[in-house]
Write a structure and sequence with these properties.
The chain has one domain. About 80% of the residues lie in helices and about 0% in strands. The longest helix is centred in the middle third of the chain and has 25 residues.
Length: about 140
C-alpha cells in the first residue's frame, strides 16, 4: 500500500480517536443522563463540535475513496476499498458515540439506522473485495 499519502498514514489515528470517543461516551453516559434530567437540555461543548467534524470528515473521505477518479488513478482497487472501509467504519463508530452522547434527545430509531448502515457497509465491503479478488481470465 502506498504509505506516502497523508490519508493512508492518518487512518489508524482516526480509528483510534473514534474508538476513544466511543469509550468516553460510554463511560460518561451517566453524567449525560444526570445533566439532562437536571436541566432538561444538553450542553454542546467545543469537543462535541470537533467530534461531529471528525465523523463527517470520515464519511467524506470514505465516500471519496469510492467515488473520485483521482483516487482510482492513485491507488489500487484493494487499497482504496481498505481505506474507504476504514474511514467509513470510523465514521459509523463516531455516529454511534454521538448517539450515546445525545441519547435523551434522539429517537431509538437512530441506532437502528446506524446498525443498518453498518450491515450495509459490511455487505458492500465483502462483495467489493470478492469482486476485486477474482482472477483474470487468460483466454476469454
Amino acid at each position: 500500500m502506498k504509505t506516502d499519502l497523508t490519508v493512508v498514514r492518518a487512518m489508524p489515528f482516526y480509528l483510534t480517536v473514534q474508538a476513544t470517543l466511543l469509550l468516553s461516551a460510554l463511560l460518561e453516559f451517566p453524567v449525560y443522563m444526570l445533566e439532562y434530567q437536571d436541566h432538561n437540555w444538553m450542553t454542546i461543548t467545543p469537543m462535541t463540535v470537533v467530534w461531529i467534524f471528525l465523523t463527517v470528515s470520515g464519511l467524506v473521505f470514505g465516500i471519496s475513496f469510492l467515488v473520485r477518479r483521482a483516487w482510482k488513478q492513485t491507488l489500487e482497487a484493494a487499497q482504496r476499498l481498505d481505506l474507504a472501509g476504514g474511514y467509513l467504519l470510523g465514521a459509523l463508530v463516531g455516529m454511534a458515540a454521538l448517539g450515546i452522547r445525545f441519547m435523551p434527545l434522539i429517537s431509538h430509531w437512530y441506532f437502528y439506522c446506524v446498525g443498518a448502515l453498518t450491515l450495509l457497509l459490511a455487505f458492500a465491503y465483502f462483495f467489493a473485495k470478492r469482486r476485486s479478488a477474482k482472477p483474470e481470465e487468460l483466454f476469454p
